[in-house]
Design a protein that fits this description.
The chain is α+β, with helices and mostly antiparallel strands and 169 residues long. The chain has helices at 26-41, 128-141, 152-168; strands at residues 46-48, 58-61, 73-81, 87-94, 97-107, 109-115, 121-127.
Length: 169
Amino acid sequence: MAIRTILHYPDPRLRQKAQPVTNVTPEIQRLIEDMAETMYAAPGVGLAATQIGEPHRIFIVDIAAEDEPSNLMVFINPEILDPSEDLSVYSEGCLSVPEIYADVERPARIRARWQDLDGTVHEEDMEGLMATCLQHEMDHLEGILFIDHLSRLKRQMALKKLDKLRKAA
């Protein structure tokens, strides 16, 4: 396992669409292990393969609280089915847009379908933070960042703040 470099906005690789995984090879398994190590070290609650420059339709999520045991979930070739018309707002952040947070409105509930490491297909209704995380990570697989969901003014303000943070570092 290895900690990989997380790509930061405006790296153009963050805008590439990920390709389906046809076979869970030992290389894909190692990639997922690296993703987990990278996400936990960052620290974060989700990481898409595209965020480390790997164009595969894979992401991982672990929304367990700090005082709870980890609950890493692996999503291979995920799909969002039947998003609710009800919306919810969460303050989102992103490892690829460090130290920037903004309220993003998304469907409050979704039905998701994905494969796990064994190739087993799962389909589950999700809501709350898990639904938000899945939608956020799915966006990464489509080359979309959470700041793309903001109004033009809020996005400009967030990017200006990001630029100041980079200059100060």
